Amino acid sequence: MRIVFMGTPDFAVGSLAALSECGKYEIVGVVTQPDRPKGRGNKMLMTPVKEYALSKGYEVYQPQRVKTPEFVETLRNMQPDLIVVAAFGQLLSQEILDMTKYGCINVHASLLPKYRGAAPIQYAIIKGEKESGVTIMQMDIGMDTGAMLDKVVVPIGKNTTMGELHDALRAEGAKLMLEVIEKIAAGTAVAVPQNNDEATYASLLDRSMERIDWSKSAQEVHNLIRGFNPAPSTFTKLPNGKSLKIWGSLLTAKHSDAAAGTVVETGKHSFFVACGEGVLEITEVQPESKKRMPAQVFLNGRGVVVGDKLE
């Protein structure tokens, strides 16, 4: 089977690597987003998928838009039997969806129809879900609306971070993708339509979401911190106006009548902040212009004291 793979971030590398390492299929092309400038020096960086594909000697294509007639013709010339998509970042046209013998399948990091869209892993944690998963779907013209070919459930622990869930979904999604492709080749794959009435959306993350609102419950703040770790991270403001990134937190059974955002207790290894409901323990932080550090190190430098108000 001749396969074109489309993907961009590290999540997609898991699926591309699985296809490459299984040795059963001919990868005739890898399509990824154009290189983008990143970091303080605006250095052009390859996408993780491009980096992996080049290391394996695959032909890499980086169209600004896959829908252009020119690139559609390029795809057609590859003569793929199947197109596999994982976190690519562009919508495909009907012409591309209809181009191949087996159509296009997508490796999506949620239990569809929940969390269609761009940030399903983050939203699953931010919304306090107890489980997530990966769905392999037969793509149609909509945004993650295609019929489901199979899915796998992955539990979310009470302290699971987005990074930890991402890695688990990356591995499970790659395995499930191979199983589905085998079924497609054997003619035994069964497509089940999604229930659109149960659909929810995980839209692009907004930078305003990174700032902690201490008036929310401790559970909600804890979910946000976990959902934004390791990227893009959450932050609050110290009494001196400087930013403080919050990387680690734990739920507690403590209660306080103090105003939300008030440091109500400091311990040997952490400090405790009153929320709109409950008290949250802060275990890892990053002061402005400094590296990540355990809260203990921050406290040793008199980072906060009881009574300080985080804004």
Overview of this protein structure:
The structure is a single chain. With 311 residues, the protein is α/β, with parallel strands linked by helices. The chain folds into two domains: 2-202, Rossmann fold (3-Layer(aba) Sandwich); 207-300, Methionyl-tRNA Fmet Formyltransferase, Chain A, domain 2 (Roll), CATH 3.10.25.10. The chain is built from eight helices and 17 strands. It has helices at 10-22, 48-55, 69-78, 94-97, 120-126, 162-186, 218-227, 295-300; strands at residues 2-7, 26-31, 36-38, 43-45, 60-61, 82-86, 104-108, 116-117, 131-138, 148-155, 201-202, 234-237, 243-251, 263-266, 271-274, 279-287, 293-294. A seven-stranded mixed beta sheet has the order 5-2-1-6-7-9-10. Strands 12, 13, 14, 15, 16 and 17 form a six-stranded antiparallel beta sheet that branches. Strand 6 (82-86), helix 4 (94-97) and strand 7 form a beta-alpha-beta unit. Helix 5 (120-126) runs antiparallel to helix 7 (218-227). It is elongated, with a radius of gyration of 22 Å.
